[in-house]
Amino acid sequence: MGPSKDSVLLEIRDLNKNFGKLQAISDFNGKFEAGQLTSIIGQNGAGKTTLFNLITGKFPPTKGQIFFKEKDITALSPHLISRIGLARSFQISNVFLDLTVTENVRLASQSRFSQSTSLFISKESKGRLQFKTDEILERIGLATDRDRLARHLSHGDRRHLEIAMTLALDPELLLLDEPTSGLSPAETIETMNLIQELSKHVTILLIEHDMDVVMTISKRIVVMDFGRKIAEGTPQEVEQNSEVRRVYLGDL
Amino acid sequence: MKVSRAHFKWFALCFFIVFPLGSGILFSEFYLSLLIRIFIFGIMLLGFDILAGYCGLASFGHAMFYGTGAYLAAILLTHVTGSIWAILGLSILANTILGYLIGFFSIRTRGIYFVFLTFALAQFFYLAFSNWNFVGAADGMAGIPKPNLGIPLDLSNRTVYYYFTLVILVAAYFIARWIVESPFGKVLVGIRQNEERIRFLGYNVNSCKRRAFVYSGIFGGVAGSLIVGYLSFVSPGVYHWTLSAEILVMELVGGMGTLVGPLIASGFVIYLGDFLSSWMAETWLMVLGAIYVICILYSPEGIIGILRKLGSIKRFSPIGDKGP
Amino acid sequence: MSFPTFLINLLYGFTIGSILILISSSLSLIFGVMGVVNLAHGSLCMLGAYFGLTLVLWTGNFWLALIVAPIVVAFIGFLMEVYTLRPLYGLDPLLQLFLTLGLSMIVSNLVLHFWGGDVRSISIPEALKGNVLILGTVYPSFRLFVFIVSISLVISIWFLITQTKWGIILRAGVHNMELVDALGINISWVFTLVFTFGCGLSSVAGVIIGALHNCNTNMHTDLLIWGLLAVVIGGLGSFRGAVIGSLILGVSEAFGALLMPGLAKFTIYTVMVVILLLRPEGLLKEI
User: Fold this and answer.
1) Nearest-angstrom CA–CA distance, B50 and B262
2) Domain A8-97+171-248 is in which class?
3) So what's the ipTM on this one?
């Protein structure tokens, strides 16, 4: 039941964002097809997270539009954007520290139920909610830590919890913001495999610094610098792009 | 461990049920009166805990709901009807609307500004009712007729009123439990812990906060109406910010987000207040302030925190598993 | 209203305003530097007034009271900060707020307990009784004196804050405490200093108010609210904001009392609510 190929899931037109005198995003345009994993790379401060923030409605753009499944979502608030199938994870783990792993994921899963903010919940729905939560925990590999407080998780496990919560939202488009940041090489590979597995069922936009990961799992890569898109293409095309090489000064 | 907590609650309930039998015989009738006030405050604290303890909205204007319930009851009892059911019903209705309005405006602010705003809003009510001649302005109204139950049980009898408020308190407790254990309640906890994340998970945070205001306001309003039904007296003091402050103190001393904690604390504070005010007049508040400060410094989780540390209650997760 | 009357009222308004500055600027600074909204500020100011009252009753010397009372209150503030506020740094700011609320309760009821509920006044020195003639109008000498003292204090503080090295470091600290720390300055003691000084400053206002108006056990509420409102108007953390907010309030009080006495209190809260809803950062830009 994967997304239909060759349909444009997310389209960004003439996106601009400035904070006072700082031009964070300039004339960004992009079309992201369903079923693909696209990585967004760039130096620190290139505007990648700002891009995510704009897409997910954290703040409005100064100019430009964002379309999801051909619907204009530019002015929508974050919770509505989340509801229509766009979920994001955060660069710095943004979980509920004083709740257990299960409670964290369950809270995320709950939002997709019709009784998400209801005072009533049937026993049957409760059961389905728990089942879904358990399923996600298994899939991400956190089942053994289910009763541990998020505060007591290792950094790597917290990053996984981050992804688990985002996944529990049944998104069509998953925005992952540096999921491997701060992880050990072993954990990075684990996460990479996880993401690759996810990409079979969900369209993914990935911000990453780790070039090995990017090169291995991306279908397409978008390169940003100073708020602009400076290159786009398959990993091979980007690798050979002179502009990209110049910016990265041989980091590739 | 959970067994001992449930046992404790049933024991307390039984105690309160048989308590009036000893009134006049084992101890003075005054204690019935004291307990009635404790029960009424307890109802209000349950609602406030939902707002402040679970949702994290430490409003400094909760007296608004108490006062509105009180004055509404006063006006209805004097001019319209004596039916306690009608009064409670209208009080709930009025405070639903009020809660929604207050919530709508208050949630536009955060942190310290939220505290200021709720404080300022409550002051409006205080000033308005202090100057409204229809309800006696600064002097308030005295000699308000007693309410009736509509059945041959006389509410002006202290024992009857005692049981009446006890029943409402127990009902309020179960309703509050139901609210905080529902999916809605769990979202409130999420809002308190990480508002941004809850929003990005797809929850309409503003709507939930408004609802929290409404629910907690209803509890406060019922309490206000009940106190007037008992004391037959109302004054602008029901809107005074010191009342909101007392509520906050009880909430903190009891333990935020535990329901039972603030209940215990309200009893403790009112009892202590009565006991101390006999030999310290109004300055017993000084002692309360000191207890409160000590609590903040050494046990921010309040009475429940202390009990927890003593090992008699295991970690009470506000959205914990109740188990299969 | 004739022009001289207008000016006289303006002077009075500035007088009230400058007294208020003593309270609001310290409140604002404590928030700006320490991140703490000191709800005990009104009570401490009141404590200063009552200490002043007692000192004048004992020694008959108003000047002594004006200097010693603030020092005593500053010391109490010092103890408060070290023993009750310090343990809470880094924790939930709401907890600190609740703490100052508790402290306020303790202090204000302490005053009630020791001084009783009657309204008292601090007697002003002989030299300052009587009136002077300003622009053909009779004006109480003491009010003029108050104005001169308060304005001088405000100007001195302004000078301290904007022209001296320490003042500039302090203002930098409002924005970025880590910067100050990086300069090798002990933040803890900066906090203690700011809080202590703030308490002392507001008690000067307390003594003045006790003499100009009266000492009553409810004054702490009004003092705190006025102080908070001035700070909210000007923006939390800004000295200049506190100055302007206080002057605005002082002048509106002077004219409002003349024009529409009944609505005064309502207006205060309306203004507060409107500002908080529309522009909580204050009506003015940063320092």
Assistant:
1) 11
2) alpha beta
3) 0.90
pLDDT value of residue A249: 57
**Does residue B315 register a pLDDT over 60?**
no
Residue A5 has pLDDT above 70, yes or no: no
Q: Which residues pair with A151 in a beta bridge?
A: none
C181/C183 Cα distance (integer angstroms): 5
**What pTM did the predictor assign?**
0.87
C65: domain CATH number is 1.10.3470
- How far, in Å, CA of C141 to CA of C154, rounded? 20
- Contact between A107 and B187 using a beta-carbon 8 Å cutoff: yes
Task: Give mean pLDDT, residues B67-89.
Answer: 93
Q: What confidence tier does C269 reach under pLDDT thresholds 50, 70, 90?
A: confident
Can you tell me the distance from the alpha carbon of B147 to that of B228, in angstroms, rounded to the nearest whole number? 9
- Joined tokens for residue A16: 């601009």
**C112 within some domain:** yes
Of B183, B189, B319, the CB nearest to A117: B183
- Domain positions in chain A are 8-97+171-248
> Which chains have 3 or more CB–CB distances shorter than 8 Å to chain B?
A, C
The pair of structure tokens assigned to B76 is 């209805």
- Cβ-count burial A13-31 (b if 16+ within 10 Å, e if not): bebbbeeeeebbbbebebe
B14 alpha carbon, distance to own chain's centre: 22
Q: Identify the weakest region by mean pLDDT among B176-185, B311-320, C171-180.
A: B311-320
Domain count, chain C: 1
Residue pairs spanning B and C at CB distance below 8 A: 92
Report the side by side order of strands in the sheet with A228-233: A86-88, A173-177, A203-207, A37-42, A220-225, A228-233
In angstroms, the CA A173 to CA A10 distance is 8
